[in-house]
Amino acid sequence: MSDDKPQNTGPLHGLRILDLTRILAGPTATQVLGDLGADVIKVERPGAGDDTRKWGPPYATDAQGADTTESAYYLAANRNKRSVAIDIAHPDGQALVRRLLGKCDILVENFKVGGLAKYGLSYDQLKDEFPGLIYCSITGFGQTGPYAPQAGYDYLAQAMGGVMSITGEPDGAPMKIGVGVADVMCGMYACISILAAVRHRDLGGKGQSIDLALLDSQVSWLVNEGLNYLTSGEVPHRRGNAHSNIVPYQLFETADGHFILAVGNDAQFQRFCDFAGVSDLADDDRFNTNAQRIINREALIALLVPVLKTKASRHWLDGLAELGVPVGPVNTIAQVFEDPQVVHRGMKINMPHDLAGSVDLIASPIGMSETPVSYRRPPPTLGQHTDEVLSELLDMDADELEKMRRKGLL
């Protein structure tokens, strides 16, 4: 592949991150920051690397169609990073990490609470030597509290944080969301926190520690359902594909499939009723306001179900969209990437890759007019940039690198 790299146009150009994370929450955060221009140095254990490298199949394939060692899961969250393989369990490896840290602005880690202290790399062990350091820790339950010592995972956060209790069919079992959204959202909160800390430091402040927990993040994005409980004292329950505060706002069956109807206000409900040939429902005192529709949800849905089954999905999708009533198909993942809007917005990208030739990736959704994201580096192979980074940042020559390899540090 060519050594030519796209220009770094991101607003975080000039910031450098030492990335000691793995799995999804931390790598999501550092990938976003990398897309925005930061130089992300991903430190991995020699011979093993990020756990998700082994979370396949599927794996990216080479030109002959054979599996590489790069899993799709790993590829999803590790773009725009440089991989450096260092054994931090060895004292010399710890010293090497500290030397790299002297060239970095931010450290992001997701070890168990206290896990880096045994390597001399906790915040308290580093803050005096690096007073400008922004140190972001991502754990399952945070640095404090009765659960702090426990390992935490996305699935646990979804269960303990309440979202599973409101996901799934009313008469079914609690259901997790189909992707690791607790991890991803915690990664997003990490990005926000890191950028706020950078702003504080830039205004004359100093570095600081950031304590993020999967469970805290999950609780925070209960949003309206969390407030429904705190306001009313009534525990929300599963509604399947229905909405707790808007009606009708759910999946409906048609003559040939399903579609989503998402009526957001009373004017939209009137237009929907007129198009569906049930204008009388919009005038019915039980249904003429959203508040009344919530109270009389079951009666309204029972009336709409047979009406919507009389026509094909395309009838409802085209006709209601033209009237400004929000509707949509239920796409498979394959259909998502074929959708003309998704294609137009460039949400699938392709990058050259040393082992696979090229890999398809999901694009960043961030659109900035003056400082757009850039795709400079594909997800790295394990230790791909060890020599490059150590030579560039620490002025190490080939002899020093070879000595370290013989000692098993790299």
Topology:
Layout: E1 16-20, H1 25-35, E2 39-44, E3 59-61, E4 67-71, H2 72-75, E5 81-85, H3 91-101, E6 106-109, H4 123-126, E7 134-139, H5 154-160, H6 181-202, E8 208-213, H7 214-220, H8 223-232, E9 249-253, E10 258-262, H9 266-276, H10 279-283, H11 290-295, H12 297-308, H13 313-322, E11 327-328, H14 333-338, H15 340-344, E12 348-353, E13 357-362, H16 386-394, H17 398-406
Parallel strand pairs: 1-2, 1-6, 2-5, 6-7, 7-8
Antiparallel strand pairs: 3-4, 9-10, 10-11, 12-13
Helix pairs in contact: 1-6, 6-7
Please give a structural write-up.
With 410 residues, this protein is α/β, with parallel strands linked by helices. The chain folds into 2 domains: 16-221 and 349-406, Crotonobetainyl-coa:carnitine coa-transferase, domain 1 (Rossmann fold); 249-337, 2-Layer Sandwich (formyl-coa transferase, domain 3). Helices cover 36% and strands 16% of the residues. The two termini are 24 Å apart.
Characterize the overall form. elongated
Largest sheet: 6 strands, parallel
- Specify Rg, calculated over alpha carbons: 25 Å
* Helix content bin: 25-40%
At the third CATH level, what is the topology name of the largest domain? Rossmann fold
What structural class do the secondary elements suggest? alpha/beta
What is the gist of this entry?
By secondary structure, the protein is of the alpha/beta class. It contains 17 helices and 13 strands. The model has no long low-confidence stretch (mean pLDDT 96).
Labels describing this entry:
410 residues, alpha/beta, Rossmann fold, formyl-coa transferase, domain 3, 2 domains, 6-stranded parallel sheet, 17 helices, 13 strands
